[in-house]
Amino acid sequence: MKRIKEIVIVEGKTDTQLLKELYDVDTIETHGLALNDKTLELIKEASLTRGVIVLTDPDYPGLKIRNQVDQVVDNCKHAFVDKKDAIGKKKLGIAEANKEAVKKAIENVVTFSKHAESITWQEFISLDIIGDKKRRMKVYDFFHLGYGNAKTLFKRLNMVGITKKMIEEKLESEGYSD
């Protein structure tokens, strides 16, 4: 079983159980939106010694937790499971996700840098992503950046150092050019 060096930040026990079926891994559970200062401090400490990967549910509470962790941890790693792969019978979440989607997310972690600007707002607008949701979702998928609106995509592209040229090349190779 593959060992994950970093500590994976998840929302709850069932997320931990799923990850332990797939990997030799240590987790810190946020208990959903009940994430408190003590747990944030533990996450911060873990980031200094082993590093952390945030793997939260692809929904609003998951995004809120992800952002809280990102505020206290520099160069935080993020793993994203697509919403369509995380829908269970009655819930949406990592514990309900198919195992292949979780493996794909862990294999495609991204690190956000808070101080980078790899693409300007004008370049972003020129890519025709804002008004085209299908095209925007493709860019999210190509670079494993999770899900969000156009503004979030712009921010994440800059945080991982993706340039306009890289986006154009990817869109073109996948048949999404103008």
UniProtKB/TrEMBL annotation:
Protein name: Ribonuclease M5
Entry similarity comment: Belongs to the ribonuclease M5 family.
Key word RNA-binding present: yes
Coiled coil: none
Known EC number: 3.1.26.8
Function, in words: Required for correct processing of both the 5' and 3' ends of 5S rRNA precursor. Cleaves both sides of a double-stranded region yielding mature 5S rRNA in one step.
Subcellular location: Cytoplasm
Gene Ontology MF, one: ribonuclease M5 activity
Keywords: Cytoplasm, Endonuclease, Hydrolase, Magnesium, Metal-binding, Nuclease, Ribosome biogenesis, RNA-binding, rRNA processing, rRNA-binding
Catalytic reaction(s) noted: Endonucleolytic cleavage of RNA, removing 21 and 42 nucleotides, respectively, from the 5'- and 3'-termini of a 5S-rRNA precursor
GO biological process: rRNA processing
Domain Toprim: 5-91
Superkingdom classification of source: Bacteria
GO cellular component terms, semicolon-separated: cytoplasm
Enzyme class: hydrolase
CDD domains membership: TOPRIM_RNase_M5_like
Main localisation: cytoplasm
